[in-house]
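Example 3.
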Amino acid sequence: QKEVEQNSGPLSVPEGAIASLNCTYSDRGSQSFFWYRQYSGKSPELIMFIYSNGDKEDGRFTAQLNKASQYVSLLIRDSQPSDSATYLCAVKLTFGKGTLLTVNP
Amino acid sequence: DAMVIQNPRYQVTQFGKPVTLSCSQTLNHNVMYWYQQKSSQAPKLLFHYYDKDFNNEADTPDNFQSRRPNTSFCFLDIRSPGLGDAAMYLCATSRAPGDEQFFGPGTRLTVL
């Protein structure tokens, strides 16, 4: 059974801080990794995808992938209250339960 | 704007009364997915279509069926809804299986 594990949180950070969200997965052969943001009562929206080991940056967001450790993370720099949401890690078609992030003004 | 549309946004049905949820897309994507998401849980993939090829997840109950009459539309049929089927149902699309997905707004199903 393919599994994607995330710390459910809540993760609370002050405005302007770096938020670090982590995800581990069980399928060693996985090739595609995604981070989605889901506001309460809304559907998921894609934040970033990463296919290769290393870092991928897009604005305030950085995705990090380590296939040897079966670990993917998302860093949010200069966190804003509008970043408060649940962040879902997805490995191909399997989603984690998500980490609830709260950014405090 | 290219998008994924789901109708209705809210659906109330009675225990055992068949219900159909609808999804349409203007992205011209090859793959359409249906997920079930319950409160504080991960979206759970029910099935997906890659073009006309139907791919059912092994643990999807027989009570759930799907139809894709053309590239743009996909339907989720729940033949005999139970109380445990109350959830948000999400439709998503992608260019190919495993690519980044674009989600519709979801349909929240209530079973009385």
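Chain B has a mean pLDDT of 95. The interface with chain A takes residues 33, 40-45, 48, 88, 90, 97-106 of chain B (CB under 8 Å).
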